[in-house]
Prior knowledge:
Layout: H1 6-11, H2 31-36, H3 46-50, E1 55-60, E2 102-103, E3 106-107, E4 153-158, E5 161-166, H4 169-186, H5 204-208, E6 217-220, E7 223-226, E8 231-233, H6 236-247, E9 255-257, H7 258-271, H8 283-290, E10 296-298, H9 301-317, E11 322-323, E12 332-340, E13 344-351, E14 366-371, H10 374-377, H11 392-410, E15 417-422, H12 425-433, H13 441-456, E16 459-464, H14 471-476, H15 484-491, E17 502-503, H16 508-518, H17 561-564, H18 615-618
Parallel strand pairs: 12-15, 14-17, 15-16
Antiparallel strand pairs: 1-5, 2-3, 4-5, 6-7, 7-8, 8-11, 9-10, 12-13, 13-14
Helix pairs in contact: 6-9, 11-12, 11-13, 11-16
Amino acid sequence: xxxxxxxxxxxxxxxxxxxxxxxxxxxxxxxxxxxxxxxxxxxxxxxxxxxxxxxxxxxxxxxxxxxxxxxxxxxxxxxxxxxxxxxxxxxxxxxxxxxxxxxxxxxxxxxxxxxxxxxxxxxxxxxxxxxxxxxxxxxxxxxxxxxxxxxxxxxxxxxxxxxxxxxxxxxxxxxxxxxxxxxxxxxxxxxxxxxxxxxxxxxxxxxxxxxxxxxxxxxxxxxxxxxxxxxxxxxxxxxxxxxxxxxxxxxxxxxxxxxxxxxxxxxxxxxxxxxxxxxxxxxxxxxxxxxxxxxxxxxxxxxxxxxxxxxxxxxxxxxxxxxxxxxxxxxxxxxxxxxxxxxxxxxxxxxxxxxxxxxxxxxxxxxxxxxxxxxxxxxxxxxxxxxxxxxxxxxxxxxxxxxxxxxxxxxxxxxxxxxxxxxxxxxxxxxxxxxxxxxxxxxxxxxxxxxxxxxxxxxxxxxxxxxxxxxxxxxxxxxxxxxxxxxxxxxxxxxxxxxxxxxxxxxxxxxxxxxxxxxxxxxxxxxxxxxxxxxxxxxxxxxxxxxxxxxxxxxxxxxxxxxxxxxxxxxxxxxxxxxxxxxxxxxxxxxxxxxxxxxxxxxxxxxxxxxxxxxxxxxxxxxxxxx
Length: 627
């Protein structure tokens, strides 16, 4: 049924969170926009998604700063408090079309009367030698995303904020009315007998600011979400704050207070959630905090280098907005195993059917290997060389980055989820955390992990594979005296199709960056930007006997938590199963992801301590010592 606040919310013209210009009012959308919103949700490529009316809205629970308003029926005239703001009247939608607004952050909604075209964000490279454009945004969606024929209708609640997602103009009004009535069911609406100081359950101040008005660009929980460009941005005030933080610590500053450093790390951590690659830049800054002295933190060269990396990301934000698909892991598009030894590193990737190969490669497993140069071997810590500076775990971590580069150069991994497995636990948890509290080799390598992921736009997941179950990568990292033909013949019993494989060799430029990080030498981010070959004209053939697997947990908010958790891991020596490496089984590989902790048992429905049956019998008698 109608709600007395629904019409008011529909008449509000909210400002664009980034440009500050008024958005298109809900009831002035043209007929073409209404027809396009009837298309199924999340179907087709990004071009078709751009024509859908995918919207967000937020509302809030009671506010204490809004003057009271009497309850009113749907037939009575509206109170003066319920009128739209005078400075932005509804007649704004009748103005003639204006010139579209183009900003470095991508396309944004235009004034009424004009359709918005979606383009891939263009780079402004050239003004800064450190800024390098990432690989272009893909136009095809991940095939594991589900499809549905009806318009979206979704409401989520975070503490006291309501987040709505809907398609189609009529459906948007229905979803908002359901939300407003649900709030009235929980918090009683106003009545004539109420005290004059009682407020409306819904914050009218925020409603008149446009928080409850539908829009394709919305500020939600401190982030600007654009459902047309499918991007997530830092709001302008947080971008300004990021610049202020970096400007407050000049390169000549040698130390700062622990209190200020805690604040800097906390703010940078909160901003890094939607800045790909930023979570890998905290190693030196965390180490500085762990080695504080009398309330002061020493700002070493490594700390200033990390701050320079954040300045690089700040300059790169304008030309490289964050895509939502870079943050949410879906079903795996490839599974890979890698290993390293004192001789070299090697690995193998098993791609899924839906992963597109690049020019010069085909839909076959990719194998690679690299032999360490002698100056790296001489620095390895061994019983004969206890004073070495490179550990075996460092080599394993370096091999993990080469492993990701192998797939990025042979397949189109943009906005795809990749599962990489190692048999070294130190490497595994370094990769999962993104940073380590150290200034040694892992700090330099993890920094390169972040830069590499930011450039190639993939989502990486990492898992453990026992050494006994990693025979292919183990052989590739040790048997350098064998030719490729001899090597693969030796590993044939472990491959699903022994005759189908392709060899990739790392480039000299990329390996120079890896070897520099192993000796703790900082390299420019551009050294990792190896332009991959173009994507080949490959059309994956879907299986006829079964449907392609689709992910269900991101779109199922009411799914039981146990379905989103992973089973506890118990080590086993026979985890290498060839049937699980077939292309059709790769998407389900994340379901076998291992964790080193057990599942938390379900808590009882009652809160508080359990009552005792007999308090008198439960008291323990005093114990007397015996001699």
